[in-house]
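Hi everyone, sorry if this is the wrong subforum. Our group has a chain we'd like a structural model of before ordering constructs, and none of us has done structure prediction before. Sequence below.
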Amino acid sequence: MPKMKTHKATKKRFRLSATGKAMHRAAGTSHLAFRMSPKRKRNLRGTRVLAKPQTRQIHDCLRGNSY
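Answer:
Right subforum, don't worry. Here is the predicted structure as C-alpha cells:
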C-alpha cells in the first residue's frame, strides 16, 4: 500500500494543539491593516480555535502526520 500523504496546503494553514483542537490564524491580517482600528488589529493577533464541525476534516487532511 502507498503511504498516506499529508495535505500540504492544510499543513501550512492549520496546526493541532496538544488536545487535538485545530488552530488557525485569524482572517484579514495579511494587508490593508492601516484601515483598521488599533483594537481590531490587536484582537486579530495570535491563533484561533477552529469550529468543531471542521476539525474532523483538518484531522483527515493531516493524517499523513502523527497527531
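For your construct planning: The chain has three helices and three strands. Strands lie at 14-16, 22-25, 47-49.
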